[in-house]
Amino acid sequence: MAERVGRSRESAARTLSTLQSVNDATHHGRQSFLQVEQGVIDAEKWSSAIDSAVEESGRLVVDMTKRLDNLALGTQGFASAVHQVAAASDEQSGNIDQIAAAASQLSSAARKVVQMAGSFRLGDGADLQ
Predict the structure, then answer these.
(1) Structural domain contains residue 120
(2) What is the pLDDT of residue 4?
(3) Separation between Cα atoms, residue 18 and residue 10, nearest integer Å
């Protein structure tokens, strides 16, 4: 009987040891699941932050596109105005050339008139009536 009690105690000790091992394994498993759960929570927060960043980036891209479009329109307007100024300058330059040519012709005509007037003689006042 003492032998059976001894074997029973050994069996109980092994059972207790096994239960402690199972309890430790369960505790470690539970800790692992808690870490996985926290990882999932952190990943969801991170995904949410990424979604917010993507939305903000999209808004910024739209805003930048609008600004670039406005800048392009302004640049086109400026280029058009510069082209108009250049065309007006060319036209004015042509007009100045025409005015200079006309002034030269008038000067030549004036010289001829002066030469012709110098060749006429006016008599005394009796001949003029």
Answers:
(1) no
(2) 86
(3) 12
Show the domain range for 7.
1-81
Residue 119 belongs to some domain of the structure: no
Q: How far apart are CA 124 and CA 129, in angstroms?
A: 11
Give the ranges where the chain is alpha helix by DSSP (H): 2-119
Burial tier of 92 (Cβ tally within 10 Å: 0-12, 13-18, 19+): exposed
pLDDT score of 65 more than 90: yes
Torsion of CA 112, 114, 120, 122, to 10 degrees: 160
Q: What is the pTM of this model?
A: 0.47
Number of domains comprising the chain: 1
Q: In this structure, is the dihedral angle defined by the CA atoms of residues 74, 77, 79 and 85, taken in order, positive or negative?
A: negative
Report pLDDT digits (tens) over 31-50.
999 999 999 999 999 999 99
Provide the pLDDT confidence category of residue 117 given band limits of 50, 70 and 90.
confident
Q: Compute CA 103 distance to the chain's CA centroid, rounded to the nearest angstrom.
A: 55
